[in-house]
Please model this.
Amino acid sequence: MNKIHILPPELAEKIAAGEVIERPVSVVKELVENSLDAGATDIRVELLEGGKKLVKVQDNGSGMSREDAALSFRRHSTSKISGEEDLERIATLGFRGEALASIGAVSKFALRTSDGSEERATLLEREGEKLVAVTDIAFPRGTAVEVRDLFFNLPARRKFLRSATSELGLVTKMLTQTALAYPGVRFVLTHGSREVINCPPVESLRDRIFQLFGKAVVDGLMEVAAVEGEGRLHGYASRPLRGRTDRSVQFFFVNNRPVKDRILMAALNQAYMGILERARSAEAFVFLTLPYADVDVNVHPAKAEVRFRDSQLVFRLVLKAIEHATLKERTVKDVYPAAGETWAPDGVAEPVAPGLGFGPEEPNAEARRSQGPAAGVAGQPGKGGPGPEVLGQFQNLYIVAGAEDGLLVIDQHNAHERVLYEKYLEIDRRKLWPRKALLIPEILDLSPSQAVAFEESTVLFEEMGFRAESMGGRSIAIKEYPDVFKAGEAREVFLALLEEAGSDKAQDRRERFLATLACKTAVKAGAPLTAEKMGYLVSELFKTAQPALCPHGRPIVVKVPRAQLDKGLRR
Ligand code: ADP
Ligand code: MG
Model:
């Protein structure tokens, strides 16, 4: 007996609709995209019960003729592409010709539209698959779509809708993102009688961010930009040490299309490593422009995701943009030195401190030069007054130093970590890891997951100066180690790196390796330091790109302003 049969068209239509339309926010998204594609400059969205009862989107765009209006409900009916070659260069938000068909199939639907050329405008009413009426009406140029009782004919779907507030939240977030991409368009969102968003047209992205997020957010942003090949990036992102405790303000756009993209998110994370305090995330409004042929927008029914032909390029653009902007920000100003100040130790940098791991070659200075002219501002020799003067050590934890306008308390471990991290970055960039042989190889018995982690990162270990050989089974012998710590520490450092290697993310593994190495080799909290070591450490610290935070994002320096002391002491 045959078991296969073709589904009746209404059922097939409902199934297809489910791919595009999941909940009210999908309806709003599709309708608003249509309005934008129609060139609207004024888009009003009204919801009742989070959109479950009503979604209405009204625009002042090009509108449709009666014939087009009737056609627009057919699946795969679109005015936006016509041939296969068009798929290579999609400039409109819509192109699949599915939205109206899908929404129409699962709701009670009314479309009012006029393209301004016909005397009478059109009202088209549908209920699920059925066309209920076509009526002449008076209506200005533009389109208004009403979608009532979403999924009225798909009870199983309707059950999965969330509370009105929760659905409203999704719509608000989506419209916020869309509004960011179109500062010149007015967006209004009302929920019942409540106005949730109302942003009139503005000149710039910055103004739009201000409208939506307010002054505090705008003040915490810096402009970012980068170009490579045919790729361009522009936008705004958190200044060093700002950011927030959640990821709710990260918006990405590709060719002005709002997207969710893991590569962009990962790149942003990595770009902010050591620039934000631990457990804080950047705010970001990142616009990427690529040739249409280099990004595939047709990978997701709701067009929420894209695929890049060259994801490495995308990654680099983000890193570059943030890095440049950060260097210009003179990242220390929130802590030390204050804005506008520069200082440098003149000729202090006598290499000292065997056992502190400071080499004579001063790779930091080299690193800054190679990063271009903006990089060295905070520590350019010869400019500014004298540097902080070390006054002493407090409880073998903190270095206390006097600056012109206050007292600095510097965490010795975190400070050294930052100094070493930049040094290691440079050594690694130049592939100059000093290697040393262990007289007696260290034998390690790895756990199964350690063994896997090691296998995965063998190359990285080797590039960083380790030579470890398999002894059969899960045992390995470390025979060489990078000569930046004592031979006796090889085992512990190796294991710490292995733990890093075992953590999930592969993207920024090299940086995390270097950060771990810096942490492991930095002077410990609790270690007494000589005045000479402290002097050197402090002067090196303020030559780094980011003296305020260690590579793991912990603060390094706290300043007690002189003014505060004076006030407290009534001077
Ligand atoms: P797509 O946007 O992928 O083309 P839709 O089903 O969303 O498919 O819309 C079908 C067609 O209906 C569009 O190509 C467009 O020509 C027309 N249309 C839909 N909404 C509007 C609108 N608000 N203003 C003008 N034309 C519209
Ligand atoms: Mg569309």
